[in-house]
Amino acid sequence: MIKNWQELLDAVTLESNKIGTSKKISSLKLQEDMVELWLNENVYREKLLDWIKFTHSNAKWMKTATVASKLRIQGNEKFKECDNVGSLMLYTESVVHAPRDSEELSLALANRSAALFHLGAYQESLQDIALAFQSGYPTSLHYKLHMRRSQCFSRLNRYMEEVEALQSAQKCLELMGDVALSKKSSSKRNIELALSKASSQLRIGSTENISDSPKTFCLPVPTYGENERFAYASAALDLRYSQEKGRHVVANRGVQMGDILFVERPYAFVVLPDQYRAHCHNCCSLYMSAVPCEECTLARYCSEACRQESWDQYHQWECHGGLELLNSIGIAHLGFRVVLKAGPLRKLQGIHTKLQESVSQSKDTYRDKQDNYRYVYQLMPHLEDMQHEDLFQYTMTACMLALYLTYCTHYFTEEANPLPPDELLQNRKSTVCFVGGLILRHIAQLVCNGHAITKLDKTFPENENREVLTEHQVRIATAIYPSASMMNHSCDPNIINSFYNQYLIVRACRDIPRGGEVFNCYGPHFRHMGTRERQEILRSQYFFSCTCKPCSLPGQQDFQERFSALLCSECSGPLLRTSESPHRMACGDCGHRQNISSLVEASFKARALFDEGSVALDVGDMAEALKMFESCWHLRRHCLYRSHRDLTVCVDQVAKCYSMLGDYAKSVDCLLQCLPAVEEQFGSNSIELANELQKLSDVMMFDIAQHVPGSATYLEKHKKATEYVQRAKRILELQYGIWNTGLQDIICKEQQLEQMAV
C-alpha cells in the first residue's frame, strides 16, 4: 500500500497516461464536470476511498486517559526537579491527550497551572485553573486551586480578586471534613495570613502594575485611513481593471516609503503541521500553553474562544482523523478550508448562482469585507492554462476531499433525510460535484495566490559560543489574502510584506508616485534569482512572461552573475561570461577583456584552504581554522570580485573565529568589510543587510565592554555601535512592526547603549 499521497497521485497519473484517460479532463470547461468525470470512474473512486480508509485506520487522533496519566506523571518528575519548562511540555501533552471533561484532564490542567505559575506566566496559569474547575477537578482539592488563583492575582497586583480567591479557598477548606486536622489548620493559617496581607494592600490601593504576559501590540491601520471601496486597503490605493493588466492596484496620491498600504486578515489560513505545537490553529498567534481540541489530539488553540470559533467554522469537518489526511495534501488543505469557511452546505448552494455571476463580474473594482468569499471565488484559477497532468492531479485531490466529506463526515447529510454515503453519492451527486468543483477551483487559485505566513526566528550556532545569533525566516502557515492578491508582480517590487499573527501588513519600500502601480513579488526576486530562472517559475506557476524592469532592461540579466564573478585586473569590477571563449571574460563595469586561467586556478586553491578551515573549525581548532580562512581570504580578494558570495562567506568565517577567540575588535573589522557586498546584492533596505547589522552590533557590544568607560577608544567604539544599531533599527521599522522580535532586540540594544554612554 502506498503511504504517501503524492506517490499515490503519481502512480494514478502514470496509469491514466498509459491508457490516455487523463487527457479527457482538458476538454471540460466546468470545474464540477471535471470532478464528476472521475467520481464516475469506479476504478479511480475505489482507489481514493482505499486511501481515505488507510489514512483513517492509521490516524492517531484519539485521546486516552492512560497516555494522559503517564505524561502527567512524567511531568511531575520534572516538576520535582525544578525543571519548569520540561514539566510544562509534558503537562501540555497530558492535557492534549486527556479525554474531554475527565478527571485526568482536570489534574493535568491543575498541574500545568503550577508550572506556569513558577515560570511567571500568571495569566496562562489563571486560564488553566478555570479550565480545571470546568473539567471536574476533585472537590477535595478545590482550595489548592483557589490558593494558586490568589497567588496569581497577588503577582498581578489585582488585590480585589486575590481577596475573593482567598475567601473561596476558606469556604472550600471549611467544607472539607476528611482532611487531617493539622494539615487543615496549617492551610487555614496560611490563608488567613495571605488574606490579611491582601486586604492591607487593597486598603493602601497600590497602583503598581506588573504584567506576566507577553507584550500585546495594537494592529496598525493603513496610512491615510482604510479604503471604503477596497477592503483592507489604504485610502491611497485604487483597484483598477484594464484589458492588458487585468485587475491591478494603483496609488491615487503620492505614497512615501514606509506607508502602510494593506492590513489584511486572511479569508482562510492553515497552520503548517510542524507549527501546531506553537501557533494557534485559529488565529496563528504564538501560545505558551495550548487549549486543545476537545475531540482530537492535533488541533491546538490559544484560548477557548479560538477553539469554539474553529469548531463552528471548519474544524468539526476536519476532526476525528481528518487532519492527518489533510496534512498530507499540501496547499490543497487550504483550498478545502476555504470551502468550509464559506459556510454550511445550504449557504453555499444558496449563493451558487451569485458565484457564477461573480466570475462574469471579475472586472469589478469594488470590494467590501462583508462579501469576501465572492472575491476569493473571483481569483483566477487558470485551469485552462495548466498542464493536463497537473490538472488531473488537482482534480483527483478535489475528488478525494469530496469523498472524504461524503464518507467520513456529516457535511452532506440533512437531519430530516439522512442517507448512507453510497446512496448519498448516487442521489446527490450534483451536490457532491458542486462542492468538489469548488475545492478544485480554490486549489488551483492557491497555486498562484497562496501566501506563506512567516516569522523571523533566531538560532545560535551549535557547539559555539552563544554571543552571535543568526536569524532566518520560518514558514508558519499558508493563507489566502484576496485584496492583496490584486497586486501584480514585479521582480523588483515596491512593497514589503510582513505578518502579525494571521494579518498581512504591506508597506511601501520606496516612494510611489501618484498613478504609479503597486507591485508585489510572487517569489522570483531579481536580487535572489537570475532572469532565466525567474521567467521559468513565472511561466510554469503563474502562466505569464514577466516584462518588469529587471527582466526587460539590457544587462539586467547579469545582476546575479556579479556575485559569482572573477576580478577585473583593470578596474576591479566583475568579469562576466562572453560568447567568444570559455577562457576569456569581459568586465561588466569597464568592458576590459582578459584571460581568466590564473584567476580560476587561484580560486580552486582558495576553495581547498576554505575546506581545510571548515574541518578545523568543526573539531574546535580555532588557531588552525583562522590560519586557513585568512589564507583563503588573501587569495580570494585577489581573484574574486569584491562582492563575490564566496569572498563574503570567507570573511564572515574569519570574523567568527576572531569572535570565538575573544578578539572582538578584529571580528568587527571583518564584519564591516562584509557590509558593502551584502548591500550591493540585497539592497540598502533589505532584511539581509539588517541581519548583518544585527550581527555586527552584537560583536560591537562585546568589543566596547573590553575597554575602560570614558576612554577615547570606548567613546569612539560606542559612537560607531550606536550608528549601526540605529541603521538596523530604521530597516527593521520599515520591514516589520514593533511586535517583531528582531526590532525589539535592536531597541533593547539601543537602550543599553544609551545607558552605557558616559
TrEMBL record:
Entry keyword Cytoplasm: yes
Domain MYND-type: 280-319
Reactions catalysed: L-lysyl-[protein] + S-adenosyl-L-methionine = N(6)-methyl-L-lysyl-[protein] + S-adenosyl-L-homocysteine + H(+)
Statement: the UniProt record of this protein carries the keyword Metal-binding: yes
Protein purpose: Protein-lysine N-methyltransferase. Monomethylates PRMT5, modulating its transcriptional activity. May also act as a histone methyltransferase. Plays a critical role in cardiac development. Acts as a key epigenetic regulator of gene expression during cardiac development via its dual activities as a methyltransferase and negative regulator of HDAC1.
UniProt-recorded Gene Ontology molecular function terms: histone deacetylase binding; N-methyltransferase activity; protein methyltransferase activity; S-adenosylmethionine-dependent methyltransferase activity; zinc ion binding
Main location per the UniProt record: cytoplasm
Top-level taxon of the source organism: Eukaryota
One cellular component (GO) term of this entry: cytoplasm
Domain called SET: residue spans: 235-523
Intracellular or extracellular location(s): Cytoplasm; Nucleus
The entry's keywords: Cytoplasm, Metal-binding, Methyltransferase, Nucleus, S-adenosyl-L-methionine, Transferase, Zinc, Zinc-finger
GO biological process: methylation
Protein name from the UniProt record: Protein-lysine N-methyltransferase SMYD4
InterPro entries, A to Z: SET-MYND_domain_protein (IPR052097), SET_dom (IPR001214), SET_dom_sf (IPR046341), SMYD4_SET (IPR044421), TPR-like_helical_dom_sf (IPR011990), Znf_MYND (IPR002893)
CDD domains according to UniProt: SET_SMYD4 (cd10536)
Organismal lineage: Eukaryota, Metazoa, Ecdysozoa, Arthropoda, Hexapoda
